[in-house]
Design brief:
Number of helices: 7
Radius of gyration: 19 Å
Strand content: 15-25%
Distance between the termini: 36 Å
Helix content: 40-55%
Largest sheet: 4 strands, mixed
Order of helices and strands: HHHHHEEEHEH
């Protein structure tokens, strides 16, 4: 699955060189409108076929109300990246679901949004334990719904959201007769691993 043709047709936000040099200046209403439109167009591939750009896209969307010229510059860089790097999702033959497991990788970063909130995300794979082939099932990146005061809390909430999504995937796969697909959660946070 790819959206390379769609990405090739994306247009950068029109902005003069002089205006580009005013990176810390707030955007005008028209510039913000153009930024919102461009980010909406970028969001579609980010959520459907390009998990690699979802974090940057959601970070820019989170700043839209107080967007600066640097946000327009970054959105244009993201559009160029989409056009210059063609990717596709490949779904290999996983053969038998009885040999498969779900792996959910989660991460977060404490207070990294401009409003002081915390960003988290996950990506979920279905992996055949025999052949080692894997297919991506779902991914998410966004602001955590709860205010957290520690890295452990941020990592835990991100992990809970990821495992919840993995459980949904597992439940759907378990509807097939004779299948029970186990879930494995993976995190890079040692404190969370010790606490669980």
């Amino acid at each position: 699955i790819s959206q390379n043709k769609y990405s090739d047709n994306l247009k950068e936000i029109d902005i003069s060189e002089g205006r580009c040099s005013q990176k810390n200046e707030l955007t005008t209403l028209e510039e913000r409108k153009a930024l919102r439109s461009a980010l909406g167009k970028i969001l579609w591939p980010a959520t459907q076929s390009r998990p690699d750009i979802l974090f940057e896209t959601t970070q820019l969307i989170g700043r839209i109300r107080e967007a600066s010229i640097s946000d327009i510059v970054n959105a244009n860089k993201l559009i160029r990246r989409l056009k210059n790097s063609h990717y596709s999702l490949t779904f290999p033959n996983l053969d038998n679901l009885q040999n498969c497991s779900i792996y959910c990788y989660t991460d977060s970063s404490l207070n990294n949004n401009t409003d002081g909130s915390t960003h988290g995300g996950y990506i979920i794979f279905l992996k055949n334990e025999m052949s080692k082939n894997a297919a991506v099932l779902a991914w998410h990146s966004g602001k955590l719904k709860r205010i957290v005061r520690s890295t452990l809390s941020a990592e835990l909430i991100s992990c809970i959201e990821g495992v919840d999504a993995a459980f949904l995937c597992s439940t759907l796969l378990n509807e097939l007769p004779g299948h029970m697909v186990p879930i494995f959660a993976v995190t890079d946070n040692a404190s969370l691993i010790e606490a669980v």
